[in-house]
Specification:
Elements lengths: L2 E6 L2 E6 L10 H16 L5 E6 L4 E3 L7 H7 L21 E5 L2 E3 L1 H7 L3 E5 L3 E3 L13 H8 L2 H10 L3 E2 H6 L5 E3 L4 H13 L3 H14 L4 H16 L2 H12 L9
Parallel strand pairs: 2-3, 3-5, 4-6, 5-7, 6-8, 7-10
Antiparallel strand pairs: 1-2, 8-9
Helix pairs in contact: 3-4, 4-5, 8-9
């Protein structure tokens, strides 16, 4: 299996499992990740996802040059031939955490950018080396990176194929936290469990409002926010959350 997909209670863990190839995304891995994310999206018992890489060297070294890039070139005029993924093709409102245990390059960085929260090991490095191969990022890198970090830093990474370390990634807001390598997954699990203690439908609505509203004019974004707020106020979880607060007890959310 190129992707190890595990379920731990309400948390789904996706592990890119090609450590001998820096966990590069070959077509097998792309297809397996697509199927796993679809299962995560559709499983009502799963509330949060964590994506990481096997081994200690790499989170993901990017698209496999001989396999995936060859497929992309052969199908470059047919965008629907590529399996849907979190970087393009899926609407996924459940939160995703990237546990970046090492190098996140090219498609690996684009995978990180597709996650909502990002925890990096101290030795992790990030970059988009595609222009050095006569290519540009094709999994959303040119679009998401420049929206998430200062334009000049995105340009430095995209146009110069420059790698940055975990501390620089934290400084520019690319990752939320930098921890020792041994603490990457434990920290990701802690964050996932913290989210699982909150109202899941409200968490998803907040993510949807953030993503869909990002490119909207403010007034349209406020209308979207109002509609989603009205939706969650009609849920059982809202009643449970407010009742638990008044009764000074821990809420028992059911995603209903």
């Amino acid at each position: 299996m190129a992707v190890d997909y595990q379920k731990e209670g309400k948390v789904a863990i996706f592990t890119l499992n090609r450590p001998q190839a820096m966990n590069a995304l070959n077509m097998e891995a792309v297809q397996e990740l697509s199927e796993a994310v679809k299962d995560f999206r559709d499983d009502p018992g799963l509330w949060v996802g964590i994506i990481t890489g096997a081994g200690e060297k790499a989170f993901c070294g990017g698209a496999d040059i001989k396999d995936t890039l060859s497929f992309m070139k052969d199908h470059r005029h047919d965008q629907w031939s590529f399996p849907p993924a979190i970087w393009r093709g899926f609407e996924l409102w459940k939160p995703l955490i990237a546990a970046v245990n090492g190098f996140a390059l090219g498609g690996g960085l684009e995978l990180v950018l597709s996650c909502d929260l990002r925890i990096a090991a101290e030795g992790a490095r990030f970059g988009t080396p595609e222009v050095g191969l006569g290519l540009i990022p094709g999994f959303g890198g040119t679009q998401r990176l420049s929206r998430m970090v200062p334009w000049c830093k995105a340009a430095e990474m995209l146009l110069m194929a420059k790698l940055i370390d975990a501390q620089e990634a934290y400084r520019i807001g690319l990752v939320n936290k930098v921890v020792p390598p041994a603490e990457v997954m434990s920290t990701a699990r802690e964050w996932a469990e913290a989210i699982c203690g909150l109202a899941p439908l409200a968490v998803r609505a907040a993510k949807e409002a953030m993503i869909r509203g990002y490119e909207m004019p403010l007034e349209d974004g406020l209308r979207l926010e109002n509609a989603l707020c009205a939706y969650v106020m009609g849920t059982e979880d809202f009643n449970e959350g407010t009742t638990a607060f008044v009764e000074k007890r821990k809420p028992g959310y059911k995603a209903k």
